[in-house]
Structure to design on (434 residues):
């Protein structure tokens, strides 16, 4: 490659984690020549731009996990960043509402996790009058966990702002660069100032780099497989159920409803159910948006395309890849009932409305319309267990690091994840010595 195509560090993936990581690296080591690569024509075109925009407080996550450690710090950093850049965000709060007595134990477990994770100002509401003081239309609740610091933001705008910061620090962004392969030049590997990694796009000119970090989201397993073998198991995740890297990604689509104009006053903040703690999905909920709209949902069903936001979007490759995973068949077999209920909510909007009426009984079918959809990159073990924690792995040569699993609350935690990745990249890849 020509000198103009050589970089100290390349970062693959222009979502919120990739952009935050690029920003953090150039902030720490401004002399590095850094490149951010994105296959689309702009940043935040997939998960980062197709989510509910919730700034999570850190309640749900197992104490000691990376999610727990990074979410609370990430929440604080996100509010500070949005305030400093005058990006839209608001602390609207959240209620996690128990509508049945058999949910009380799980609600208590969430309170325990939240307190151990040092979620600020978490409070258990033990009767309906306390719930109504926070959400006047939530008449279906018996008990609730109130998180006043849960909020909302426009994560697409945040991602683009991270990109602007990166450019202002001397970084370079190349759009329309769809990574097809990574080639190691063995002659360059022995050169202390060599550029041993060549990144070849599907079309166009290749680039070379000394170190590589990937944050490829829905394609993280495919990108990681370009450089990793199962012997490259230097994982920074503490999740015991994680499969050997790279983890398999299975896409799950979530469809939302929206409140019709004029009905947004039904809720003040986020209203969530008490989730099934066996799964990382949080259940259908009410979410205000920074533009004043309110989203309801989502469901969680297998997507037939990794970037398939429509009901009938199908990729033969992606579908065949998902169906080839033994873990997916084990997951489906063990959860036939919940899976059918999720599927019903796709077909019948009334089924989702009925679920939401547990919390706000005054909600009717006439109050809602079909809304947008998002696709979640879910890492899956061969056993059928969903890999819940963030997973970050490196190659045995100390040249490459992959963010292999970064589901929610990755957007909330993005600035903290970027700090964590930069720390590990300095330790494992020697960024500070380049």
């Amino acid at each position: 490659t020509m000198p103009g195509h050589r970089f100290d560090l390349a970062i693959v993936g222009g979502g919120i984690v990739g952009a935050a990581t690029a920003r953090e690296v150039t902030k720490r080591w401004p002399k590095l020549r850094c490149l951010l690569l994105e296959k689309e024509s702009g940043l935040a075109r997939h998960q980062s731009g197709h989510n509910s925009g919730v700034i999570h407080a850190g309640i749900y996550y197992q104490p000691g996990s990376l999610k727990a450690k990074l979410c609370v710090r990430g929440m604080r950093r996100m509010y500070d960043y949005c305030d400093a850049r005058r990006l839209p965000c608001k602390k609207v709060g959240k209620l996690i509402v128990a509508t049945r007595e058999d949910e009380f134990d799980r609600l208590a477990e969430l309170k325990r996790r939240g307190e151990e994770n040092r979620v600020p100002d978490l409070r258990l509401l033990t009767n309906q009058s306390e719930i109504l003081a926070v959400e006047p239309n939530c008449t279906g609740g018996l008990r609730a966990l109130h998180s006043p610091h849960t909020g909302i933001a426009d994560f697409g705008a945040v991602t683009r702002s991270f990109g602007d910061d990166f450019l202002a620090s001397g970084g370079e962004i190349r759009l329309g660069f769809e990574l097809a392969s990574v080639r190691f030049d063995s002659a360059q590997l022995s050169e202390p100032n060599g550029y041993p990694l060549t990144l070849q796009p599907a079309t166009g000119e290749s680039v070379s780099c000394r170190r590589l970090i990937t944050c490829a989201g829905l394609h993280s397993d495919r990108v990681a497989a370009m450089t990793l073998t199962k012997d490259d198991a230097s994982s920074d995740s503490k999740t015991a159920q994680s499969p050997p890297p790279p983890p398999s990604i299975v896409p799950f689509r979530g469809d939302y409803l929206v409140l019709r104009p004029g009905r947004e006053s039904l809720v003040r903040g986020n209203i969530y159910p008490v989730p099934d703690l066996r799964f990382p999905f949080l259940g259908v909920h009410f979410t205000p948006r920074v533009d004043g709209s309110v989203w309801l949902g989502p469901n969680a069903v297998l997507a037939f395309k990794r970037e398939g936001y429509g009901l009938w979007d199908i990729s033969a490759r992606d579908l065949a890849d998902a169906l080839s995973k033994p873990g997916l068949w084990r997951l489906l077999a063990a959860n036939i009932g919940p899976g059918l209920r999720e599927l019903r909510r796709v077909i019948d909007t009334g089924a989702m409305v009925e679920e939401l009426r547990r919390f706000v009984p005054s909600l009717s079918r006439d109050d809602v319309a079909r809304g947008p959809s998002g696709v979640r990159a879910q890492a899956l073990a061969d056993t059928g267990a969903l890999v819940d924690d963030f997973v970050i792995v490196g190659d045995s040569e100390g040249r490459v690091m992959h963010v292999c699993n970064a589901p929610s609350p990755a957007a909330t935690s993005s600035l903290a994840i970027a700090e964590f990745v930069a720390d590990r990249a300095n330790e494992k890849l020697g960024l500070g010595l380049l």
About this structure: The first strand starts at residue 6 and ends at 12.
